[in-house]
Amino acid sequence: SSSSSVILLPTALLLAVSAGYAAATWCICREGINDAILQKTLDYACGSGADCNPTHQAGPCFSPNTVRAHCSYAVNSYFQRNRQIPTACDFSGTAAVVNSDPSTAGCMYPASAAATTPVAGGTTTIPNG
Prior knowledge:
Keywords: Cell membrane, Disulfide bond, Glycoprotein, GPI-anchor, Lipoprotein, Membrane, Signal. With about 130 residues, the protein is mostly helical. It has helices at about 1-20, 35-45, 65-80, and strands spanning about 25-30, 95-100. Helix 2 (about 35-45) packs parallel to helix 3 (about 65-80). The longest helix has 21 residues, at about 1-20.
């Protein structure tokens, strides 16, 4: 009977590890911030290593064609490429970490850095100007 308890321990451990990975996080641009400020955030993220190609015209994440939607995709890309460190989703207070998937039909938001390349820095204080 002792052999059955040996089998249960690794199974329980495996379930605990799997549950930890289920709590995915994303970074999105906050609501209630005007488009001019979100455009600065979008430009900063794209210029700092985020993959913004999917938000370009004819890209899978071009629609909805709003500054906030494109901003959210860009900051999430940056956040994932920086291994989801909290400082990589601040952008001077214009972005926030969420636990619900912001993906839309045809536009998949990455949930990990697995398929992305890390970018240098990891801090997101947007320079004034």
